[in-house]
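Thread: quick sanity check before group meeting

JM: Hey all, I'm pulling together slides for Thursday and realized we never actually wrote out the predicted structure for the chain we discussed last week. Dropping the sequence here so it's in one place. If anyone has concerns about the input, flag it before I start.
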Amino acid sequence: MTEAFPLYWPEGRPRTPNDKRIAARFDTGFGAACRAVYEEIRRLGGQSPVLSTNVPLRRDGLPLAAAKRPNDVGAAAYFFYKNRQMAFACDKWTIVEDNIYAIAKTIGAMRGIARWGTGDMVDAAFSGFTSLPPPKSAKRNWRDVLNLPHNVWHTRSAIIIEYKTLASRLHPDAGGTHEAMSELNAARDEALREKEGG
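JM (edit): ok, ran it. Output follows.
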């Protein structure tokens, strides 16, 4: 499951070394940059956005007033687009809000391709931003598959509700894949077995 805090950097994406980061010319604050990302994702038609950084957040998604600037200034935005999870990440700039704003600008550029380009151009452009699945040998925990927090006790009904919500999107008849649905079914079965045993 993708977390907003701490930073969840996409697997396999290279990081910018600290000495190679540069100052941006953006003129934006943290809150405005966050709102810009969420707005661009909404305009694109993305679903379930998560903006991940090393800045502790309040419940409304804005930074804590007393939060110190993190050493790791990277930012990553995750969302679903046409039933595929997308991952946009940036750590090129010297401060977090500039990296967040760069993600917003990139998604805005992709929206332009979607609006003015052809369907195959959009799919080709987005292929590099698809969040990579875990290696075949790595089985995900049922909580991650069902998007349920690890540190909370889940009732049988909560598991079933989340399963049905995800199944409505991941089922092959709804545009999902057989692999995703198979993983979801296995996670549900494992979760319910654990509940019966505990």
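AS: nice. The CA atoms of residues 23 and 94 lie 5 Å apart. The mean pLDDT is 84.
JM: adding both to the slides.
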